[in-house]
Amino acid sequence: MPKKIRELKQLLRKVGFQELVGKGSHTNWIHPLYAGKITVSGKDGVDAKPYQEREILRAIQEVKENRNNEQT
User: CATH number of 5-67: 3.30.920.30, 3.20.20.370, 3.30.70.1170, 3.40.50.1220?
Assistant: First the structure.
């Protein structure tokens, strides 16, 4: 079952991403340990597309790896 857009946004917030306002239903997300930004489109109650889930999970994994690299 696909996650809702609001669930993906919660995951990003939990890891420390900051939300920037976009146009319409788009929001941009940045993190100091992530190169670039992530754009999430869609209203909060809508099911996320598989590519959106993959992109966000990859970004979260990258942030966690970068945190671990900084600690060593």
Answer: 3.30.920.30
- Token pair, residue 21, equals 């306002």
pLDDT given at position 71: 79
What are the tokens at 2?
């696909």
Distance (Å, whole) CA 36 – CA 63? 12
Tens digit of each residue's pLDDT, the chain (72 residues): 899 999 999 999 999 999 998 899 999 999 999 999 999 999 999 999 999 999 999 999 999 999 998 877
- State the angle between helix axes of 50-71 and 5-15 in degrees (0 to 180), rounded to the nearest 10: 10
User: Which are the contacts of 49, defined by CB distance < 8 A and separation ≥ 6?
Assistant: 2, 42
In whole angstroms, give the CA distance from residue 71 to residue 29: 24
